[in-house]
Amino acid sequence: MNLTPDDIDAIWLTLRLATTVTLLLLVLATPIAWWLAKTQSWLKIPIGALVALPLVLPPTVLGFYLLVFMGPNGPIGEFTQALGLGTLPFTFSGLVLASMVYSLPFVVQPIQNAIESIGDRPIEVAATLGAGPFDRFFSVVLPLAKPGFITATILGFAHTVGEFGIVLMMGGSIPQETRVVSIQIYDHVEALQYANAHLLAAIMLCFSFIVLLGLYGFQRKRSGVGLHYGG
Amino acid sequence: MTCLMKVYSGWFAAMLGVLISYDALAESAHVAVAANFRQSMQALVTELEKDSNHKYILSFGSSGKFYGQILHGAPYDLFFSADAVKPKAIANRGLAVSESRFTYATGRLVLLSSRMELAEPARDILTRGTFNKLAIANPKFAPYGVATLEVLEFLDRYEITKSKWVLGENIAQAYQFVDSGNAELGFVALSQVIHQKKYAGVFWLIPDSWHKPIEQQAIMLNKAKNNAAALALINFIKSNKGQNILTNYGYLTPENY
Predict the structure, then answer these.
(1) Residue B252 touches chain A, beta carbons under 8 Å
(2) Which one of A143, A204, A218, B165 is separated from A110 by 20 to 30 angstroms, measured CA to CA?
């Protein structure tokens, strides 16, 4: 039993989607995480809750709203049509946007926790030594919060790879565009091609286990050698 | 006093008898129904429940999923597939009562357009290719999707439209893609749109000679052998009243069973 060309397409697509989403999310999530870690505003609680929503919402809720909002009569759909981009459902860009919503908390929260655990002191010291805001971020915050960023990258990537419900609702199972591995497995099962489904499912299982193994191994090592045990 | 007691006990026994017989008449059946047959099955069951005390628990989805679930012991009494292959396979595996397998309906395909404001027939939109997406049921496993491909082949529109296909996991999702406006065209089941006022007269009924018949079969699973409710539903579908309901939803029905 070998992977079919469609299976290989699905694997590449999934990796492409997860990479794109993770990179975009790191850029988007860092300022959000920074703001959530530092702000004294009353908005911290509602915005924090908003960011965490995809953790608890069923994918059907997200998929349904995104399909409606991104459709031709929805606000996002009207906006993208006005830009001449057409509508987003059934496109790779649409999946990227949906996955960014879906994986947002998995990227924001580790970074936020890391920034919070640094505290204000190192940043203030850097400031008194004459470091500008960008210098302070890139030379002080980024190295100190590196474990948080690595955790965020791994979780964001893995969670996007494991996405299913939203893609099922707004993907349309288009080869090389929206038919990711989880959908391909579902299609195999529906078509009663259990051998193909087994193979892809086993690959997903191994991948997920190795990712988590790496993540936990990394976190354990950090906490072992770090100054603050358990931090 | 004893006389009164006798009256009471007699009355009690009579009540008990009524309760028991009522209980024996009222059974429930769990029915797995292919997505295209949703509206029709609901209409059938509503009508049937008026005349009997049977209760029906309906589950809707793709035939492929139900097939897989039944192989793995799903507790359904009846299975209404969108094709003939799956009920046959279930019977061959000894999971169902072979003799109970029958064709309950033959499906019809329509082309639906979500751009009703254009007042342009769906057929012209397909011919001219002026649409963003064409929603179809996934032909890898959905019988309506298979028929759709045959129609596209017949019209010589297979290759030219291929890049615009969006695949629904069943005919209900294909319909939902069009209905939500996300796909401007879609091949759906006649039964889904026939009673939708907003689509009255705007869909294009595909001549059934352009594709192989979408023969839909049902079968009774072993667990339902002595289930009066399951039997009642099958008999009702085969009755004139049941046949009229199916015709009303746009299905072709077998002349005789």
Answers:
(1) no
(2) A204
